[in-house]
Structure formats: C-alpha cells, structure tokens
Amino acid sequence: MTDGREDMLRDGRRVTLRAVQPADAALLAAGFARLSEESRFRRFLSPLRRLTPRQLEFLTRVDHRDHEAIGAVAVEGGVETGVGVARFVRSAVRPHEADLALTVSDEWQGRGLGGLLLRRLARRAREEGVTRFTADVLAANGAVLHLLRSLGPTTTARDGTQLTVTVELVPVPEERAGRTVPAAS
C-alpha cells in the first residue's frame, strides 16, 4: 500500500492508512489468512476459506473514485502487516450511494482502528460525491453497528440475522466551509 500517513490508535499503537493498490494483493491475502472464521463470516456473510485470484484482483484494483479502498498497515519487527481495510463501491444506479465494507484483523479489533478507517473512508466518499453508504451487517455485530451510527443518521432493514444499514454521510463543519480536514487520529 502506498501514499500513507501514520495515525495513532487509542492504545498508542501506530498504523499507516493508505490507498490500496494492485501491488498490495499479497499483503491483503496474508491479512485475510490471519482472520478468524468468525471475522471472515462477519465480513463476507458466508464461510469463505480463501480469496480467489479474481477476488484479490477486485479487492486491489480500485479506481479510487467509484471503488475506493483504504488499508491500514502496521510495521512490527520491520515487517509490514495489513491490519484493516475499509472500502466503498459506488452504485451504478444511484451514483450518490455506495456499498461499504470494513475488515479489521482480530488482534487489532477494539483499538479504534475501525472508526479511524471509516472516518477516512467517509471523507473520501464525500469528496467523490457519495452521500450515503449501505452496509450488510449481521444483527449480532454490535461493534460495527455502533461504528456505522457514528458516521451519521442511519436506517435499518432486517432480513433474518442480517441487517442492511443505510448511513447518511453528513459533512463535517470544516468540509461545509470548503476546507480540507486533516484525518482524526
């Protein structure tokens, strides 16, 4: 992943958030391999065991306009490790809407990384004219539901154990004034 900026999490650990590029396929695959079965299921809503080459290509070949992906990387012992990804894919029918997905490695959950990734992604979405996110989430995934509600007003539709959450992306005051907003740390 390239063009990053370092941010500090609640526990003092540092990560670099940066745009996902095709060269990140191996980093993404390694991060996926470290996910627990539960985390994989929560992200893909199915028992996915591995990412296929086609899936890796889709997840890393993004145009940063209609499909944006921001990855979080930690450097531990001189080795780069992918620890989270947030992405949106714009709707072809409703260009102001985008599907949202978030994954944080199990050992990095509960440190504020998910919120950091989502805030950065929401800012990018607003820059690209996206004003609404939709996300399919397991009803039992309270942590992600809380994060989504922190982005703006939400509506929820239930289908069994799955929810479709719609989030209105409200501009932050600095964006309304037309100024660039530094990412929150």
From TrEMBL:
Q: Which GO terms describe its molecular function?
A: acyltransferase activity, transferring groups other than amino-acyl groups
Record InterPro entries: Acyl_CoA_acyltransferase, GNAT_dom
Where does the N-acetyltransferase domain lie?
Answer: 15-173
Q: Name one Pfam family in it.
A: Acetyltransf_3
TM spans (from-to)? none
What is this protein's name? N-acetyltransferase domain-containing protein
Q: What is the lineage of its organism?
A: Bacteria, Bacillati, Actinomycetota, Actinomycetes, Pseudonocardiales
